[in-house]
Amino acid sequence: MISPNRQGIVVWLTSLKYARQLRRFGHVQYVSKKMKYVVFYCDQSKVPELVDKLSSFHFVTDVKPSMRPFINTEYEGAKPDKAKEYDYKLGI
Predict the structure, then answer these.
(1) Integer Cα distance of 81 and 91 in angstroms
(2) What is 6-70's CATH number?
(3) 17: number of CA atoms within 13 Å, CB side?
(4) Is 8:39 a contact under the CB 8 Å cutoff?
(5) 27 CB-near residues (< 8 Å, 6+ apart)
(6) CB neighbours (10 Å) of residue 31?
(7) Where are the domains of the chain?
(8) Which of 3, 35, 66, 76 is the most exposed place for a label (fewest CB within 10 A)?
(9) What is the C-alpha separation between 36 and 12, in angstroms, rounded?
C-alpha cells in the first residue's frame, strides 16, 4: 500500500551500478542513464534521516529532497482568460 504522505528524493550517483542499492530505502521511480540520477519516493517522516544517510555514501554526489509537498497548489483569486471563456461558450 502506498503511503499518502510520501516525498520524492533525487540522488545523483557517480556510477549507475549503485542504483539498485537505493531500492532498500524506498520505491525507485526513475533512473536516468544519461545524467546518472535516481528518483525515488519514501515516507515523508524518514526524509531527513535518509538525506543524511545517502549523503554519506561514497557513490553519491548530491541528494535533493522534493519540495512538492510544501508548495500550495490551491490558487485563490485566479482570473480566467477571457478568450478561452469565449471559446468555451461557442463550443469550439
Answers:
(1) 16
(2) 3.30.70.920
(3) 1
(4) yes
(5) 2, 40, 41, 42
(6) 16
(7) 6-70
(8) 76
(9) 6
Q: Closest Cα partner for 50 from 17, 27, 16?
A: 27
Candidate from 29-33, 45-49, 61-65, 70-74 with smallest mean pLDDT? 70-74
Average pLDDT of the chain is 87
Single-letter residue type at 75: Y
Checking 34-40 for CB contacts under 8 A at 24+ apart, the result is: 36/12, 37/10, 37/11, 37/12, 37/13, 38/10, 38/11, 38/13, 39/8, 39/9, 39/10, 40/8, 40/9, 40/11
DSSP secondary structure letter of residue 35: T
Average pLDDT over residues 60-72: 92
DSSP 3-state of 11: strand
